[in-house]
Specification:
With 131 residues, the chain is mainly α. The chain has helices at 7-17, 22-31, 50-59, 78-126; strands spanning 2-5, 39-42. 61% of the residues lie in helices and 6% in strands. A two-stranded antiparallel sheet has the order 1-2. The chain is elongated, with a radius of gyration of 29 Å.
């Protein structure tokens, strides 16, 4: 998912977030211009894809120029968050493996209980003693 935030929207979001901080809003008013830039937030479906996205954006700088020749992308903050993203990816993979093993364990338990119930019904129905 890609979300574009314009400079004006970023300023409106900032003002809304800091509406109770009059000192910050006063400092923003004294600037006279919008100090915030536009941003492009890219959210991948799989956390392991962020490295490839960052490499593409870093390596494809010749295609990422505006019509005036200036760079469109100033910073990519993937490297700042790489440790957290990798740890999150590790936790997600561990949780998936744990869920898989628990599902297998519960399936085995349910099969054993089912077979024992059928076996018990068979012996009770025949009037035999359970061995």
């Amino acid at each position: 998912m890609v979300a574009y935030t314009s400079r004006d929207q970023a300023l409106a979001n900032f003002e809304q977030k800091h509406q109770s901080d009059s000192l910050t809003l006063a400092a923003l008013d004294e600037l006279g211009t919008n100090p915030l830039g536009a941003s492009l937030n890219i959210k991948a479906k799989d956390p392991s894809q962020y490295g490839g996205i960052a490499d593409f954006l870093n390596g494809n700088s010749s295609g990422l120029l505006s019509s005036s020749g200036s760079k469109i992308i100033d910073t990519i903050n993937y490297s700042q968050n790489k440790v957290v993203i990798d740890r999150l990816n590790s936790i997600i993979n561990s949780a998936n493996m744990l869920g898989l093993w628990l599902a297998i364990l519960f399936i085995i338990i349910s099969v054993i209980v089912t077979f024992n119930t059928i076996r018990l019904n068979y012996f009770i129905g025949k009037g035999m003693k359970y061995p």
